[in-house]
Amino acid sequence: MFRCIICLRELDNATASEEHIFPEALGGNITIKNVCRECNSKLGRYVDAPLINNWLIEAKRMLLCLPGKSGKIPNPLEKGYIAGDPQHEVRYEFDSNGKPKRLYTVPKVIREEIDTGERIRIILDKSDENRLPIILEKIAQRAKNKSLKMELLSRKEVHVEHPTMEQNFTFNLWLFSPLTTLDKKS
Ligand SMILES: [Zn+2]
């Protein structure tokens, strides 16, 4: 017979659970058995999760290629935009081994009211070129309902040799505040 080191309830092999001393997602593989299921899940929720899902830790996990329980290496740099053009959204994609794969332009249709009608800007990744006719078709269908005429103003193909991506992100510093208690309500 042994006890849960947190709530001190008596445990047997059926009620004990495996607790990773260092979270699995950070590469931890040392485990203890003397924690009950309930305390283990609280530790996961209030201790492990805020730690491993923190932006700074995710960035480090990405550099070290440390996957979580899902087997996926986190990519906190995934969503951003081309420097100087916040409307040009990009996705920084990694392969399954956590190695950089490509910077992908997220398809976007931007509508703008102008004196003579509406200007539509379509931003597409080169790899999505075949989707352009479908997108134009959809826009044309809507234009017909409004009895509008469509005219191609310009088409620009941009190739950037070393694109720079910008990203906005937030840190939850509250989680690191000494004033934060684990669970104020319960
Ligand atoms: Zn317990």
Radius of gyration: 25 Å
Mean pLDDT: 86
What is the number of helical segments per DSSP (H or I, 4+ residues)?
3
Shape: elongated
Name a few traits of the molecule.
2 domains; four-stranded antiparallel β-sheet; about 190 residues; single chain; binds zinc ion; two-stranded antiparallel ribbon; alpha+beta
Describe this structure in words.
This protein has 186 residues and is an alpha+beta fold. It has two domains: 2-74, no CATH class; 79-166, no CATH class. Helices cover 22% and strands 27% of the residues. It is built from three helices and ten strands. The chain has helices spanning 37-52, 55-64, 132-145, and strands at residues 2-3, 10-11, 16-20, 31-36, 79-82, 85-94, 100-105, 108-114, 117-123, 165-166. The strands form four sheets. It has a four-stranded antiparallel β-sheet with strand order 7-6-5-10, with no helix packed on it. The radius of gyration is 25 Å and the shape is elongated. It starts with a strand and ends in a 20-residue tail after the last strand. The mean pLDDT is 86. It binds zinc ion (ZN). Residues 4-56 form the HNH endonuclease domain.
